[in-house]
Amino acid sequence: MPRNYLDRSLAAPLLLLNFTFYVIVLGIAGWSLDIMIGQVVIGQVAVRTPDLYGNAATPMFVIFTLIACVVGIGSILISSHLANGWGAEHASTVISIATLAWSLLVLAFGVACKEISIGHTNATLKFMEIFVITLAVTHSLYLIVVWKGHERV
């Protein structure tokens, strides 16, 4: 049995879980952005409906979440492509792109925490906040597993 077998066996389910979370959050964030853009200007009159819009942190939360999800999905696609040749030359690439995705996700996590502390959000935004927080934890676990796997290669 190879020395990094345990790390590979943990990395694949975490990749699948993270990919599923990223796709769900990307869909909700895209929908939220569409709602916000549709509410900003209708004709020449600015319209704002607080029930759908959220609070003051919502625009930044949605934008940072969209960016983090797109980079995270790219990171997962690169990681899954390079998983077959799990060597030292591939591990450094996987770790660097996973760290970049994680840092953007932590930024979205921070804005989600601020949005939670402000309050006045609807159920969809609360659902997205919960998913971003959960995704930050699972992506952190994935980064730890990949980093430990790189140390053993």
TrEMBL record:
First and last residue of the signal peptide: none
Regions that span the bilayer: 20-47, 59-82, 94-113, 125-147
Pfam families per the UniProt record, alphabetical: AWPM-19 (PF05512)
Keyword Ribosomal protein among UniProt keywords: no
The keyword Membrane is assigned to this record: yes
Keyword terms of this UniProt record: Membrane, Transmembrane, Transmembrane helix
Protein name: Uncharacterized protein
